[in-house]
């Protein structure tokens, strides 16, 4: 459903855009195009469906198409996070955003966000990424949990949770991720030995670690999903994996501008943006398909002679013979093996979900690692504090990765602090299933509401000294050393549990959360044990939004060795 507004010249619309509240032009009838639902109009000027008395929620211009044109012309799409922050500063903690055919209510305060999540219902819904859905429909691919809704979503999700979210699952994959994180450090040691300078024990090398971080994330994902290493740290990593990393980046970068336009029309018109988007997805699917086939065949080969049966009554991978047993039981066969073995999820859905996990699992972990290394490098005091805890914990844990992480809560604090300042997804969205009241405005059920994480993480109303990178604000400094700096404000404000939301919330939160948390923390743990980090400039890093938040140009870091490569191998 479109938002209807009067036609105005660009100059006039620009002026209106920057005005505080544009009530004069608001003749909006409208509701979220995305839901296809029309929530009841509650009255008030413009009838946008959310009223306090007869006031409309503040907004920055009610014609979504004019706003869209302006965003396009001014290049706002890749600065959407900054645009949101500015708009909150201008209009207060709630505003309505009209963009193309979509309208959303944007909020920022933890108390309001808590209220939103309390009304998400049994089958929470996010904004549909229509370009992704259109790609699946045109190529006749099944959808995975990211794109499904309702009871269908829940059924798949419960099966996936068992393989990747439960603590028993984490125990299975943690050693694999630990192995990949150590290998990353060996690779870095080799590079420093070859190309670095300085004394034997303390050699340094300045480099952009991003390409290796992306390889790390893909290697780690594949190990967990397929139970198999793919050799990305070897001297000649496979070309198809490099292409996969490139394809995920293209797919993400082409998504935001397509979100507000009708993808089916763009497809029919062969608009280049759509073609690029669809081609990127095709690469992602063919890479995932090849991996799944290989994994399946390997599982069959490994299982021959064991006498257990695969539950294959609900479908078969083309080319697979079916009926054999994956895994001998003593080795983790990867999420793929586990799902096949259980036989509860049809094979087309295993394929759909593993492809989503692959696509969702690389940039989302590599990018926060870029930011975390940068922040640790430009805050040497923080770096030392975290390193000290890590080293003590590592000694205590005697090489057990789970114990090592438990004993170093500042690592978790580092990850949370990184995601506070640089949330991968700049918003989390929900459609409340009942009317809710936020800031005294009534929001009808079915309205798209966005919790805006980037402005939230940088808000002085929510965090003390938000500009400071301080992992101990989340607790975890040495025991008995007093309270974290957030303690007092947590008690003061409402919604204390809704400040750290980078992985979303509740039943629909990120299904890859445990994988990502383990990957990020283990890599930081091994890097801090092995290397000292420095940056040449302490200037803030510029960021861009390409569906996820990324550095505009990847930070360059100087790594200096603290341990020799041999010492990394030893548990202590
Ligand atoms: C730091 C890393 C990551 C962050 C910050 C992140 C963030 C998010 C967020 C905010 C959501 C939406 C949650 C909600 O609506 O409440 C989400 C969903 C999802 N994420 Fe992640 N993610 C990360 C890593 C991963 C990884 C490693 C994978 C795959 C292995 C993954 C796969 C998914 C999938 C499939 C969904 C959809 C879940 C559903 O709708 O049921 N993510 N993620």
TrEMBL record:
Q: Where is this region: Disordered?
A: 301-326
Where would you find this protein in the cell? Mitochondrion membrane
Question: One matching Pfam family, short form?
Answer: p450
The answer to whether keyword Metal-binding applies is: yes
> Biased-composition ranges for Gly residues?
317-326
State the Gene Ontology BP annotations. Answer: C21-steroid hormone biosynthetic process; cellular response to peptide hormone stimulus; cholesterol metabolic process; cortisol metabolic process; glucocorticoid biosynthetic process
Provide the binding site for heme: 510
Q: State the SUPFAM superfamilies in the record.
A: Cytochrome P450
Q: Per its UniProt record, what PROSITE patterns does this chain match?
A: CYTOCHROME_P450
First-level EC class:
oxidoreductase
Q: What is its EC number?
A: 1.14.15.4
A single GO molecular-function term is: iron ion binding
Q: Cite the entry's keywords alphabetically.
A: Heme, Iron, Membrane, Metal-binding, Mitochondrion, Monooxygenase, Oxidoreductase, Steroidogenesis, Transit peptide
What cellular component terms from Gene Ontology apply here? mitochondrial inner membrane
What cofactor does this protein call for? heme
Taxonomically, which superkingdom? Eukaryota
- Asked whether the keyword Iron is assigned, the reply is yes
**Protein family per UniProt:** Belongs to the cytochrome P450 family.
Query: What's the protein here called?
Result: steroid 11beta-monooxygenase
What organism is this sequence from?
Answer: Electrophorus electricus
> Which gene carries the instructions for this protein?
LOC113574779
């Amino acid at each position: 459903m479109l938002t209807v507004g009067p036609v105005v010249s660009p100059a006039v619309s620009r002026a209106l855009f920057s005005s505080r509240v544009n009530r004069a032009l608001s003749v909006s009838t409208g509701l979220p195009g995305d839901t296809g639902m029309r929530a009841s109009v509650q009255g008030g000027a413009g009838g946008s469906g959310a009223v306090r008395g007869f006031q409309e929620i503040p907004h920055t211009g009610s014609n979504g198409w004019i706003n869209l044109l302006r965003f396009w012309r001014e290049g706002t799409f890749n600065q959407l996070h900054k645009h949101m922050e500015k708009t909150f500063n201008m209009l207060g903690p709630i505003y309505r955003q009209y963009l193309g055919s979509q309208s959303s209510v944007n909020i920022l305060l933890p108390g309001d966000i808590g209220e939103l999540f309390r009304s998400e219902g049994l089958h929470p819904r996010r904004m549909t990424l229509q370009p992704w859905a259109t790609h699946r429909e045109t190529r006749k691919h099944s959808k995975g949990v990211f794109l499904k809704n309702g009871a269908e979503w829940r059924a798949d999700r419960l099966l996936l949770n068992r393989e990747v979210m439960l603590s028993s699952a984490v125990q299975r994959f943690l050693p694999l991720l630990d192995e990949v994180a150590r290998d990353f450090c060996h690779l870095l040691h080799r590079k420093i030995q070859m190309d670095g300078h300085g004394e034997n024990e303390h050699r340094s090398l300045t480099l952009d670690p991003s390409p290796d971080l992306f390889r790390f994330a893909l290697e780690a994902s594949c190990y967990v999903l397929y139970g198999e290493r793919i050799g990305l740290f070897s001297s000649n990593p496979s070309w198809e994996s490099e292409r996969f990393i490139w394809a995920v980046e293209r797919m993400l970068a082409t998504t935001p501008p397509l979100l507000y336009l009708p993808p089916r029309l763009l497809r029919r018109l062969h608009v280049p943006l759509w073609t690029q988007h669809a081609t990127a997805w095709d690469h992602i699917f063919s890479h995932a398909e090849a991996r799944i086939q290989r994994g399946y065949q390997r599982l069959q080969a490994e299982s021959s002679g064991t006498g257990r049966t695969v539950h294959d009554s609900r479908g078969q991978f083309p080319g697979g013979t079916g009926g054999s047993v994956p895994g001998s039981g003593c080795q983790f066969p990867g999420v793929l093996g586990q799902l096949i073995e259980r036989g509860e999820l049809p094979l087309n859905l295993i394929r759909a979900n593993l492809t989503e996990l692959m696509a969702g699992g690389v940039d989302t972990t590599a990018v926060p690692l870029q930011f975390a290394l940068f922040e640790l490098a430009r805050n040497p005091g923080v770096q030392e504090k975290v390193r000290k805890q890590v080293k003590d914990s590592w000694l205590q844990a005697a090489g057990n990765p789970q114990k090592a992480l438990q004993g170093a809560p500042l690592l978790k604090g580092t990850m949370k602090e990184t995601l506070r300042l640089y949330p991968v997804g700049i918003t989390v969205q929900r459609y409340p299933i009942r009317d809710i009241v936020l800031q005294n405005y009534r929001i009808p059920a079915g309205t798209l509401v966005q919790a805006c994480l980037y402005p939230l993480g940088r808000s002085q109303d929510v965090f003390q000294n938000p500009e400071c990178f301080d992992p101990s604000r989340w607790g975890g400094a040495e025991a008995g050393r007093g309270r974290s700096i957030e303690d007092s404000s947590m008690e003061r404000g409402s919604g204390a549990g809704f400040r750290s939301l980078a992985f979303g919330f509740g039943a629909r939160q990120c299904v890859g959360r445990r994988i990502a948390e383990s990957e990020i923390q283990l890599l930081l743990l091994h890097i801090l044990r092995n290397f000292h980090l420095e940056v040449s400039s302490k200037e803030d890093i510029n960021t861009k939004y390409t569906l996820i938040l990324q550095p505009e140009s990847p930070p360059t870091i100087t790594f200096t060795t603290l341990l020799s490569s041999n010492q990394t191998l030893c548990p202590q």
